[in-house]
Amino acid sequence: MRVIWLCVAVLLGTAAVAQGQATLSDAAAKAKNAWGAHDPEALVGKSSNIVLQIPGADPSSPLARPQAIELLRRYFRPSEERGLDVTAIREVEAGKGFVELTRRYVVTGTSEERRETLFLGYRLVAREWRLVELRSTP
After folding, report:
1. What whole-number distance in Å separates Cα of residue 15 and Cα of residue 48?
2. 83-117, pLDDT tens digit by residue?
3. Is 109 helix (H, G, I), strand (E, B) or coil?
């Protein structure tokens, strides 16, 4: 009987993980993959409002999901990724964390490699890490 309960617990835990990012490390991996694929929908995920501090976005207030996706799409458009590394993952307090990515890219049509640091702020909502802020620094 204990074996059956143990199997049920493992299956339920696996199902919960499959529904969202169980850890901040999982959210970091998802963000890295989404950025590398230039997939703003996957990067934003289920977040409803996001503060963007990237060239071309007014950082003064949170943007609704569709607007954030469109601005990220425009930001991705003129660049080609050369490398993307997760350089830090920290939970700064319960339910709040950040991920730091170091990006290497070129502007389409050029060969000069550029670097950029990306800071992604997350909040834990319903056992899922959701992106709430994205900042870019040269």
Report:
1. 24
2. 999 999 999 999 999 999 999 999 999 999 999 99
3. coil
Q: How far apart are CA 70 and CA 64, in angstroms?
A: 10
Under 8 Å between Cβ of 123 and 93: no
**3 state SS of 95:** coil
Place of tokens 């170091």: 102
Closest by CA position to 122, among listed 86, 103, 87, 94: 94
Considering the segment(s) 21-137 as one domain, its CATH architecture is Roll (3.10)
**Which pLDDT score is estimated for 14?**
39
Tokens of 31: 């963000």
Residue 46 dihedral angles phi and psi, to the nearest 5°: -90, 5
What is the C-alpha to C-alpha distance for residues 53 and 118, in angstroms, rounded to an integer?
Answer: 10
**Contact, 119 vs 137, CB < 8 A?**
yes
pTM of the model: 0.81
- What are the boundaries of each domain within the chain? 21-137
